[in-house]
Amino acid sequence: PYSKDPAVVESIVREVRKTTDLPLLAKLSPNVEPPVGAVIYVESMNEYIEMRSRMLQLAGLAALIGLIIVATLLANQIKVSYKNATLLQNVKKQAEDLQQINVRLEKEIEERTEAQRELSNYKDHLEELVKLRTEKLKKAQDELLEASHQAGMAEVATNVLHNVGNALNSVNVGIELLRETIRKSKIESFFRVADIIHEHSHDIGTFMTSDRKGQQLPEYLWILKQKLKSEQESKLTAINRVTHNIDHIKHIVATQQQYTKATRFEQQVELDHIIQDAQEMLTNIVDTPVKISTELATIPPVMLDKRKLIQILIGVLKNAIEACAEKTDAEVRIVTAQVDDQQFTISVMDNGIGIEESKLAEIFTQGYSTKGDSQGFDLHYCGNTIKVMEGTIEALSEGPGHGATIVITLPLNTAVPAQELNETDSSLQA
After folding, report:
1. For the sheet containing 404-411, what is the strand order?
2. CB pairs under 8 A, 24+ apart, for 139-143?
3. Of 351, 306, 361, 317, whose CA–CA distance to 331 is shortest?
4. CA 369 – CA 350 distance, rounded (Å)
5. Mean per-residue pLDDT of the chain
6. Angle at 53 between CA 48 and CA 56, to 5 degrees
7. 3 state SS of 232
8. Nearest to residue 81, comparing CAs of 93, 66, 69, 89?
9. DSSP structure class, residue 370
10. Which pairs with CB-CB distance under 8 Å and at least 24 residues apart come from 49-53?
11. Which of 14, 108, 312, 343 is the most buried (most CB within 10 A)?
12. Neighbouring C-beta atoms of residue 155, cutoff 10 Å
């Protein structure tokens, strides 16, 4: 209702308050949004119509917001339903995949069970094969051991025969020297002198004083005596060498017998004496004269097998001399040195044909030789014997044409066990 009379307005307000609890505004500004459900007092119908239109707009806006909310909720519901449908489809697919995997696993388990069964059967068969193969291998090993034993015996026999052959060569050289000395002997001249004296035995005084031959006879006898004396010394030297080499052969055989008993004969020796003996024996083996010089250090007497070391030195020296055979200035040097309190070395150096670096490790193997007419026994025997004597042997060379050096290293054992001294004394007394 439209009224400007305050009394009328107040009356209307009282009536409205009697019929409703809604809030009542006496005046509402056009710029203020009215609360929902309020009774609005306006001064003109236009203002009322405008206000009502605004309220309708607000109501429409509220309805639109409601529709948007409903649409949003519906869209979310549809989206959730779609997700649930997709999830259900994925679950079904995974279930199908799991079922297929289960089928494959069952098949694989079945195949593995079958393979396990076959493997078990093969294992039993394999055990039989291994047992049979083991028996064959054992038999082959026994045969190989027997063959190795035979080969070892043959190698030992070869070494013994080779050393005996070297010694026999020395004996032959000594005997040939004796034969040549006897063939050229002046003993025939002595026999002729004896015949002349016998012919003039009835007038020996006159013959010695008057005859020209008789007068020369004393001087001739003096010269003949000197010749025969020199000849006798030469023969004795040759006989001593032959005897020495025969003793060497005896010792080689005795040493081999000692090998069969697994024993070693060691004695206290002077190293320079052994080198001198080896040089003297070598002169009866090698025909080509080669200058051999020595540089011997002061080394105390050592305990070792004298004969074995002599054989080793002869083999090494012989190899060095043969390596220098084609040189006019051939030279071999023997150098000894004490490394420390435990070891000493013997080095044999030559200026011969030399050795290739790749061949240095092979020269101590049986059959290896740089000389076409050699079977390579000497250095092979030396290498094996040095091992028995608990030493080492190595070859050094800067290459072909630069000579070579063989270095022998042996333990410096200077102690003489009392039991061994007693045995040595007993054997000397016997």
Report:
1. 291-295, 331-338, 343-350, 404-411, 392-396
2. none
3. 351
4. 16
5. 76
6. 125
7. helix
8. 89
9. S
10. none
11. 312
12. 15
Cβ atoms of 314 and 163 closer than 8 Å? no
In what helix (H) or strand (E) does residue 333 lie, and over which residues does it extend?
strand 331-338
Q: Max Cα separation, the chain?
A: 221
CB 347 within 8 A of CB 362: no
Output the six-digit token pair for 180.
């040549």
Report how far residue 381's alpha carbon sits from residue 255's, in angstroms, rounded to the nearest whole number.
Answer: 14
Residue found under tokens 């089928």? 103
Q: Full-prediction pTM beyond 0.70?
A: no
Cα 346 from Cα 189, distance rounded (Å) = 49
Q: Is 354 left (phi over 0), alpha (psi -120 to 50) or beta?
A: left
The Cα 403–Cα 329 span in angstroms is 12
Cα–Cα distance for residue pair 108/114, rounded to 1 Å: 10
Query: What residues pair up with 294 in beta bridges, in sequence order?
Result: 334
User: What is the C-alpha to C-alpha distance for residues 350 and 288, in angstroms, rounded to an integer?
Assistant: 15
Letter string b/e over residues 86-109, b meaning 16 or more CB atoms within 10 A of that residue's CB: eeeeeeeeeeeeeeeeeeeeeeee
**What is the distance between the alpha carbons of residues 214 and 224, in angstroms, rounded to a whole number?**
15
List CB contacts of 22: < 8 A, sequence separation 6 or more: 16, 37, 38, 39
Q: Residue 55: which of 33, 28, 22 has the closest Cα?
A: 33
Two structure tokens written together for 346: 């013997």
DSSP H or E stretch at residue 65: helix 45-183
Single out the residue of 195, 413, 170, 391 nearest to residue 304, CA to CA.
413
The pLDDT tens digits for 130-156 are 888 888 887 776 676 566 556 656 666
Q: Which of 362, 377, 350, 249 is nearest to 307 (CA)?
A: 249
Contact assessment for residue 354 and residue 398, using Cβ atoms and an 8 Å cutoff: yes
Query: pLDDT by residue (tens digit) across 51-63?
Result: 667 778 888 888 8
| Nearby residues of 58 by Cβ (< 8 Å), 6 or more positions away | 33
Contact, 383 vs 393, CB < 8 A? yes
Residue showing tokens 């005897």: 243
- Reduced to 3 states (helix: H, G, I; strand: E, B; else coil), residue 266 is coil
The C-alpha R_g of the chain, in whole angstroms, comes to 63
Q: How far is CA 134 from the centre of its chain?
A: 29
Q: Are 306 and 275 within 8 A, CB to CB?
A: no
